[in-house]
Design brief:
By secondary structure, this protein is mainly alpha-helical. It has a four-stranded mixed sheet. α6 crosses α7 and α26 packs across α27. It starts with 16 loop residues before the first helix and ends in a 15-residue tail after the last helix.
Length: 658
């Protein structure tokens, strides 16, 4: 994710509550004034508002003195009617301590706001603050609006402060009734789902679920089951399905699962199966997937595996057959691969699912025989099916290679001098966190950097640096280099406090160590490519290439090509996911991340059954990139060679085991 500087950004908040819904309210008036100045007085603050200010309308919110008074008014009771100067000094001290890394001060701030918002949610009719001709008064003004703001804020605080989440959610039973009142309010159904208070109420209940009483858990699960079975669209069902699976893992012994959910899912599958036209049975993917995720093997899976079924249903069936390895499911996958009338995505999923059978002794030999038939003849995959076969047959070796210190440095760099120079540049670019990574994660970082190693001096000269967070420092703003962004939003409305990866306006990119996973995503590839895009592909180089092709012409050609790739992919609906469609920089960063990741955990592939994973930007791998956006794949495959025309043959070594 790219974070654009708020200052002079021309920011104007959208009308969507989604913009202000995600994250909490630690805004410092001084930061507001510094970021926007007096000219922004007619704008809604980009920095977080207090979520317990009642039905304050957007045009009435102002910066400067009014904003200070609004914040102080909400603090007044907490400080026992102390004078304004005392309140201001105390709050300023807390924030300064938090920005300097004092975790106790941060906990005091967040605990205070969580308690306030909890009270606003439970007692909305009696606790309100509103503007009235510039004055702040108490009184019951639109309790529903206040409850919604409290839900948005609480969800944001719990999500942002994972280290405090257990402590902040210790006593939450009293929140259940007002949350369920919103979740069960059918009058809200006409609202757009992204703006829906119920969405955030469900998400908040999901977070506090482990600390609810069993009857409260059952009530919430019953609501989610009903909404899932009567869902109004794929987005809602895709949201609820994994939630129910996760809640099952948290409390699998709750009678609800055996007594209510599974029998109703089985009946749903039977009803759909009676439809004569295969193309009309797409809905079967929902109960089939949920039944599989909650511990039961669907008995009727083979009935929905034919080539005439909806493509998403074919993919779902192929995924379930890998999630639940049995002899019948193995035969089902073989049949999908034998018949090229099946959707290409289903056949790709069948190969990826057969990879799960390589770990089962009784199926290993036969599975390998089936997969081998799809391997590329020259050792270099060129189609999604070849890539899938190539990946699953070599997965164990690649995982083993990742455990060898300096694997890619040894394999991809020819001389000791090259290796030493690369390490020196890497250690200047990555200023912290690399040494704390495990061997596999270090190799994954090297795998991303080495093809572009010749450009590390350019990035370093431009002031670009990369930070990898430690296990104890999850949020971006917990890093010393990034504390200036505490309480500040990006252009898309997200709070920097909430992020685990971002390219910041101050030149730093941050990647969470937890998001560099050998069997999953590699966010380092995403954030690093923002630097490559901004300082290599977009900007003119300052070096003297007088004896080579004009650098400015080269850059112009590359950026024009990127613009063309991006526009075509958006127009033809073949970007990797919704996030890649937002702008060209995210399009390229998502593409580079998918190019780097050859395989992810099989469970993470389930989203391919929902519009090919368009709404899940964490499931992208190279075979999907080949299939969805072949022009971008070809561009990324050759990009380092195109840029480094001085010595193109040594830039990217085509290693089939990479």
């Amino acid at each position: 994710m790219v974070g654009t500087s708020i200052q002079n950004s021309g920011f104007s908040a959208p009308q969507s509550v989604l913009w202000s819904a995600f994250f909490g309210n630690t805004a410092d008036p001084a930061v507001v004034e510094r970021s926007f100045g007096e000219t922004a007085a007619n704008r809604t603050p980009a920095l977080p508002l207090n979520y317990f200010t009642g039905n304050v309308t957007r045009p009435m919110i102002r910066f400067g003195r009014d904003f200070n008074r609004l914040e102080l008014a909400t603090l007044e009771e907490a400080f026992l009617e102390q004078d304004e100067d005392t309140v201001r000094r105390t709050w300023k001290t807390w924030r300064e301590q938090a920005q300097n890394g004092d975790m106790e001060a941060r906990e005091r701030i967040y605990t205070f706001w969580v308690n306030r918002m909890s009270d606003e949610l439970v007692n909305a009719e009696t606790r309100m603050i509103r503007f009235d001709n510039g004055e702040i008064t108490d009184g019951p003004v639109d309790p529903a609006s206040l409850r919604e703001k409290a839900i948005f804020g609480l969800y944001a605080y719990y999500l942002t402060n994972r280290g405090l989440q257990k402590k902040l959610t210790a006593n939450v039973e009293h929140l259940f009734a007002p949350l369920m009142a919103i979740v069960e309010d059918t009058s809200l159904d006409e609202q757009d789902w992204e703006h829906h208070p119920r969405i955030w109420g469900e998400a908040l209940l999901n977070i506090i679920y482990p600390n609810l009483k069993p009857w409260q858990q059952t009530t919430f699960l019953e609501n989610q089951k009903t909404r899932f079975m009567q869902g109004t669209g794929e987005e809602e069902r895709q949201r609820i399905l994994p939630r129910l699976a996760v809640l099952h893992e948290k409390n699998p012994d709750l009678p609800f699962w055996d007594n209510r959910l599974r029998p109703e899912l089985a009946q749903w599958i039977e009803t759909i199966g009676k439809k004569q036209a295969p193309g009309d049975r797409e809905e079967a993917k929902y109960p089939l997937l949920l039944l599989s995720l909650t511990g039961e093997t669907p008995a009727a899976l083979h009935k929905f595996s034919g080539p005439g079924e909806d493509p998403d249903l074919q993919v779902a069936v192929a995924w379930i057959a890998g999630h639940k390895p049995t002899q019948k499911h193995f035969d089902l996958l073989k049949n999908i691969l034998k018949d090229d009338a099946h959707d290409e995505r289903a056949r790709e999923m069948a190969l990826l699912s057969l990879g799960e059978y390589l770990r089962v002794d009784q199926h290993k030999e036969k599975a390998l025989e089936v997969i081998t038939a799809f391997l590329p003849g020259n050792g270099q995959p060129d189609t999604p099916l070849e890539e899938a076969a190539f990946v699953v047959t070599g997965k164990e070796k690649r995982l083993s290679d990742l455990q060898q210190p300096g694997h890619y440095i040894r394999e991809w760099l020819e001389t000791d001098a090259d290796r030493e120079e690369y390490r020196r540049l890497r250690d200047r670019y990555i200023v912290s966190g690399f040494d704390e990574l495990g061997t596999a994660a270090r190799n994954m970082v090297d795998r991303v950097l080495i093809p572009y190693r010749k450009y590390l001096p350019d990035l370093i000269s431009a002031g670009r640096r990369h930070i990898i967070t430690s296990a104890a420092q999850e949020a971006v703003t917990e890093m010393p280099e990034c504390r200036e962004y505490l309480g500040i939003r990006t252009e898309d409305g997200s709070l920097y406090d909430s992020m685990r990866g971002v390219a910041l306006p101050n030149g730093y990119a941050v990647t969470a160590h937890a998001n560099i996973r050998p069997d999953g995503t590699n966010d380092f590839a995403h954030e690093f490519f923002h630097h490559i895009h901004d300082d290599v592909l977009k900007l003119r180089a300052e070096r003297d290439y007088s004896n080579e092709t004009a650098w400015s012409d080269q850059v112009e050609t590359v950026q024009k090509r990127i613009d063309s790739l991006y526009r075509s992919a958006v127009d033809e609906s073949r970007t990797m996911d919704y996030y890649a469609a937002t702008e060209d920089s995210e399009y390229m960063a998502q593409g580079n991340s998918a190019y780097d990741v050859r395989f992810i955990h099989h469970a993470d592939l389930m989203s391919y059954a929902f519009s090919d994973g368009y709404h899940d930007h964490l499931s992208n791998i190279r075979s999907k990139l080949m299939r969805r956006d072949r022009p971008l794949y070809d561009f990324l495959e050759s990009l380092p060679d195109k840029l480094l025309w001085k010595n193109p043959t040594s830039v990217r070594i085509r290693i089939t085991s990479s």
